[in-house]
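Lab notebook, bench 4. Still working through the backlog of constructs that have no structural model yet. Next entry is a single chain of 699 residues. Request: give me the structure tokens for it.
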Amino acid sequence: MADSATRPGTRAIRRFIEPRSVAVVGASESSPRHAVRALLDSDLDVFLVNPRHATVFGAQAHPDLASIGQPVDAVLTLVNARAAVDVVAQAARLGAGGVAVNAAGFAETGADGAELQARLVAAAGGMPVLGPNCNGFVNARSGAFLAGAPQLPLRPGGIGVITHSGGFITDLSVSAVDRQIGFSSLISTGNEAVTDLVDYLDYLIDDPQTRAIGLVVESLRRPEEFFAAVRRAHTAGKPVVAVKMGRSRRGQEVAASHTGAMIGDGWVYDAAFRQFGVLTARDLGDLLDRLMFFDQLPTERWTPVRGTAVVSVSGGAAALAGDVWEDEDLHLPALEDLRAPIAEVLPRAGSTNPIDLTGFAMGKPDLVESVLQNYTESPDVDAVVGLWTLGLRSRGFADSFLLPFVNAAKKTSKPMVLSAIADARVSDWAAELARDGVAVGHGLRGTVRGLTALRDFAAARRRIHARPAESVPLERPPGEAIVRTPDGPILNFTATMGLLRRCGVPVAPFAIIGADQHPGESVADLLEPFVVKLADCPHRTDIGAVRVGISSDALPEVVTDLRRLAAEHGLPPDVVVQPQLKATNELFIGAQVESGLGPMTVCGLGGIHVEAIRAVGGLLAPFDRGEALDLIEEIDTIGAFDGARGAEPLNRDEFARILQAVGSLVVGARDWLVSLDINPVLTGADGFVAVDGLVYVSD
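Model written out:
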């Protein structure tokens, strides 16, 4: 990939993605690709390059780029990999704006392909190159169709999409039709030899026509710059919604073979996306569902959807809506305060939310509108969803409900959404409702996901924190503090606990009994009973190297037994003794320098809870106090910090401070620290205390 010195800036990317002149190298009437015909139908200046033909589709064909006689803003290559490198070199010499390289056969194929890709990077200089091994891009506003896709049902709009997998451009375009989504640009980045997802994300953030951004991600090559861009998107009021591919082991293998990218762990991406307010989706349909209302609704209707009201003309649909809303965790307030005013109009109404109007809606538009107004004026309702069949050819049957709904929408700034019960094609008359301020959902579940995205984006914007300063670099511990183990070098117990203490993590008292020391010499100040264990052993419990409830009388025998165990496993003979502390809860804290996205701190409920309920969360370090408190809220699924079952509540602020300390530690020591494990962290009368730690270091 191009380095920072030769990376094209946003202005260069804009010239490339918003071209006024385009050249297609390898244009041929025999090719099934749609790009040439689409470009010829646009208002752009189009130049076709094919040295073997004088004309293509009736238009003049040039033998090469130089013969065009002027630099063009964008070039699409439809030639093979080696020829594409030559095209890039010629385009750069001529001052072209950029090149989209459709051909495969580069780094994704192995060493020879990687060498060819390096030549392509060198040929580009500072010129933007999209790909190689990509599907190019489509600018839906200008008609710049520089893609190897078939003809697409594109509608100009406010959604910009960047995908690592070029084949998704076609599926996204087709699936967007029934969600009433229009696009600004669809961009596939492929191998990202010169430009990458972050470059195009920066472009879309600055693009005034793009209102929300969708991403399909295999791996992030520049995670720090990516998350900085996401923060900038939030500041600009632009949601970012992402699908992370390669979450499963098999998915990782397939993705790696597709682009040659290194795939990070899906859990790490989930945690980081949550931290930085990237909304997540599980597949392409889910992605589009979560983007559709950002395109359909004006920004003043992007309310923080804490509560919705559902109005139906079918009892079954109302019941099903309640189930789907609960499945998708979107709040349906009971709205008991509306029961009396609605009963005046609809005496036999059962539930107030969802409400079943049944036959009442037919022929009584004024009364229907008065019911809807009750919902739009309620402070507990942030959005109103009307359930109606939207696929009928004629609008006439719908008007008895549709007209009151449109009138109610004109009198409120809250989102008003019409949705069919099932996923279905939307009729033309329904698609035109956006002009009246009414959005059209994509079935019950798609509608809920779209509203959830509005809610989550509002919450993410509220949670934007200033980035904390980078940590001060920590000196590498001296060589005598490092112990060689079969799993890699670790810090000895004394150095580990000292490192934690210096960084602000409370640690339990301990004594080290060295090989030549008598057990009674070091433990006089410790309270019985003791926990006794081998000091420098990465997996003590696996070999039975931990003893609990030990008295001072039994200590010499236990120490002798542990030293014997150390000798059997080739481990240092030092033994650590600690008082056996009483605890109300156990937690753990860990950190990994190379998570795939940067230094990450993780924490969770310890003991049986780690495996039983997987109450684990993580943050990219460094992070601030607000983010640490958010993480505590995320992991506390059983109310441990609130004092579950009569226990004393835990100090969230103090644990957040400890998490921040670990985050600063892992960033400050990133040049030599590999991973850190503090397990367990006990809670009791004296607050939080770390009783054990394991630090792996680099060679």
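Notes after review: DSSP finds 21 helices and 31 strands in the chain. Residues 324 and 610 are 30 Å apart (CA to CA). Flag for follow-up if needed.
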